[in-house]
């Protein structure tokens, strides 16, 4: 996977998770498989609107759907969620590195950090 592909995947993942309804759907499908109609009954929106949310999550690879008779069953993809967590951990490490460098600069600063008037 090229760096551009990885960035496109990150964009899709974070776009999918940027919506609170989709995050809630993810919580539900990670806890266990749900039919799309059962998911739709949990929200004050149309079945079609919930289907669109599920489609965004599926396109991002965060959930998978399978057919069981007339129902579409959705389940969360733990591997995809771990990849999001990994990306956030990577960003946190960059941030922690910057904080550590700032701490080092402050510690090595020869100028007094406070002045006292006498």
Write a concise synopsis of the structure shown.
The chain has 118 residues and is mainly α. It has helices spanning 3-17, 20-31, 36-40, 47-59, 78-108, and strands spanning 34-35, 63-68, 71-76.
Question: What would you note in describing this structure?
Answer:
This protein is mostly helical. It has a domain at 3-77: Arc Repressor Mutant, subunit A, CATH 1.10.10. The protein is built from five helices and three strands. It has helices spanning 3-17, 20-31, 36-40, 47-59, 78-108, and strands at residues 34-35, 63-68, 71-76. Strands 1-3-2 form a three-stranded antiparallel sheet. The mean pLDDT is 89.
Would you identify the regions where 5 or more consecutive residues have pLDDT less than 50? none
Q: Summarize model confidence as the mean pLDDT.
A: 89
Oligomer: single chain
- Fill in the CATH topology of the domain at 3-77: Arc Repressor Mutant, subunit A
Number of helices: 5
List how many beta strands DSSP finds. Answer: 3
Name the overall outline: elongated
What is the radius of gyration computed over CA atoms, rounded to a whole number of angstroms? 22 Å
Looking at the overall shape, the CATH architecture of the domain at 3-77 is: Orthogonal Bundle
Proportion of strand residues = 5-15%
CATH class of the domain at 3-77: Mainly Alpha
How would you sum up the major sheet?
3 strands, antiparallel
Strand order of the largest sheet: 1-3-2
Structural class: mainly alpha
Element-by-element helix/strand order: HHEHHEEH
Q: State the helicity in percent bands.
A: 55-70%
